Amino acid sequence: MTIKDTPEEWEIRATDTPFVGNKTSVRTDDVVMPDGTVVGRDYQVHPGSVAVLALDEADRVLVLRQYRHPVRHKLWEIPAGLLDVPGENPLHAAQRELYEEAHVKAEDWRVLTDVYTTPGGCDEAVRIFLARDLSEAEGERFAVEEEEADMELDRVPVEELVRGVLGGDLHNNCLVVGVLSLVAARAGDGLDALRPAQAPWPARPFEA
């Protein structure tokens, strides 16, 4: 038996969007359960995101520290951002985020993993890329504002991040999933066996 998630959509009797925000919204669907009952399900509607685990030649990961108001923490994270346009190519979005947040470019891109961050309450899908062969980007640095104006950048060895994840000191979803996926890929078929950067992504279809 192959362990694999499969698409499925149960009948929706009614739907409402009681809140529409700048980037996301909240939707309420009345969903028909297997026994025929109808139950309301509230969830956040999200455009999708990309994240970049940028690995340098010294086996360090490019990380940033940013204030996240909902959890009242400054979290160490990997560069990430929203898919700004429906159908946007996720690789292009990831390259943009790496440039804007770290002023770095990469020559080698692979898909590290795809995840749903909180499928019980949000439809956000994230594609996490592995970026290697890093160099400083050309041109002026991107102008930061709001929380990003207080952002710190660093490069941290992979093994130190793994210790932080397993020790309960690092909590950002994309960092945790990305770092542990990197270690798993190395222990398996190797990083060069990862999916190509333009691999299909059914959760957020795009034009290559």
What does this structure look like?
The protein has 208 residues and is an alpha+beta fold. It has three helices and eleven strands; from the N terminus they run E-E-E-E-E-E-E-H-E-E-E-H-H-E. The strands form three sheets. It has a five-stranded mixed β-sheet with strand order 7-4-9-8-11. Helix 2 (158-166) packs across helix 3 (173-187).
Write the topology of this structure.
Layout: E1 12-20, E2 25-32, E3 38-45, E4 49-54, E5 60-68, E6 73-77, E7 80-82, H1 90-102, E8 104-116, E9 125-136, E10 152-157, H2 158-166, H3 173-187, E11 195-196
Parallel strand pairs: 4-9
Antiparallel strand pairs: 1-2, 2-3, 4-7, 5-6, 5-10, 8-9, 8-11
State the share of residues found in helices, binned by percent. 10-25%
Secondary-structure element string:
EEEEEEEHEEEHHE
Average of per-residue pLDDT values: 94
**Major sheet characteristics:** 5 strands, mixed
Which features characterize this protein?
five-stranded mixed beta sheet, alpha+beta, 11 strands, three-stranded antiparallel beta sheet, 208 residues
Summary of the model, kept short:
By secondary structure, the chain is an alpha+beta fold.
